[in-house]
Amino acid sequence: MSTVQTDSVENAIELKEVEGLSQGRIVLRRFLRHRGAMASIIVLAAIVLLVTTSIGWGPVPGWWQHGFRDLSPVANAGGAPTMGFGDGGFSFGAHPFGQDNIGRDVFAMVMRGTQQSLTVMVVIGFFATLIGVVLGALSGYFRGRSDNIIMRFTDMVITIPVIMIGAILGILVGGASAWSLAIALSLVTWTTMARLVRAQFLALRELEFVDAARVAGASSFRIMFKHILPNAIGVIIVNATLLMASAILLETALSFLGFGIRQPEVSLGTLINEYQAAFSTRPWLFWWPGVFIVTIALCVNFIGDGLRDAFDPRQRRIPTARALAKADAKKAAKALKANA
């Protein structure tokens, strides 16, 4: 089959599938078909459920018998993980992720560290997105002097390394709580979102529906947030997920360097920093925080890829050989019916 025929069949298949559906239903349909995003949502939801219910979170009590600060006698060959296969089959044991040298349960500490890192990720994702959307919208819509002031301030923030600003803010508020650290980091991670939203508003403000709203007497802020913003929501959502993925890595890096969340609280970064010397002798102390960091970051990135493919109208599913053969069969059947 030629390329032209393949493209025409592909267009016909996609148009038939989305015929009569709203834009929201089309986006949802495409997103649900993204296998990587669906698998990532399941894995991420399982992680959130595990860390929420295991040691408890806030008023929610946990089912795990050890707290992340509890001390118990070191057992099982120097605190090695008890999880594995034995005579009775697979078993978690008393300390599935092992213990450190003073008897703290690694599973409880990893769960607490994941809670803290997830909190930082979500809070940064929300506040940095909010700041970036508001500043980008004001800059792109009003242009002129407002655009120059906002964008020059954005450029100034971009030129300073985020890790350096984050380290300074981490020293000031890092030991307090995950919330205070996340809000502080939100003040330096909004810049990419602001530039992307500005570019969207610069393009959308010149379209006919904006002129119609302006002629109808709508105020500037109503046009910005009622008419233009919904048309830029795809770019915002996709980049918010990518921002969240980079946020958890930023928090991990700062905590690893000692500028983020500090004792007596724990995060995945502080666990890696504390046990980096034990990598060659007791690697289980180092592995589990790293596994959770990589898993969460990959899940959020895959979800972002799925959202990008769903919102981008240029992203089309390549039809399989079976779909092409089915389309050819239908076309041949129609031709025979017409000739008969």
Q: What do these coordinates show?
A:
The protein has 340 residues and is mainly alpha-helical. It has a single domain, classed as MetI-like (MetI-like fold). Helix content is 69%, strand content 2%. It contains 15 helices and 2 strands. A two-stranded antiparallel sheet has the order 1-2. A hairpin with a 2-residue loop joins strand 1 and strand 2. Helix 5 (106-142) crosses helix 13. The chain starts with a helix and ends with a helix. Mean pLDDT is 82; it is low at 1-11.
Question: What is the architecture at the second tier of CATH?
Answer: Orthogonal Bundle
Largest sheet: number of strands, sense, barrel closure: 2 strands, antiparallel
Shape: flat
Integer-rounded radius of gyration: 26 Å
CATH superfamily: MetI-like
How do the strands line up in the largest sheet? 1-2
Into which percent range does the helicity of residues fall? 55-70%
**Counted beta strands:** 2
Structural class: mainly alpha
* Low-confidence sequence ranges: 1-11
Query: What's the order of the H and E elements?
Result: HHHHEEHHHHHHHHHHH
CATH C-level label? Mainly Alpha
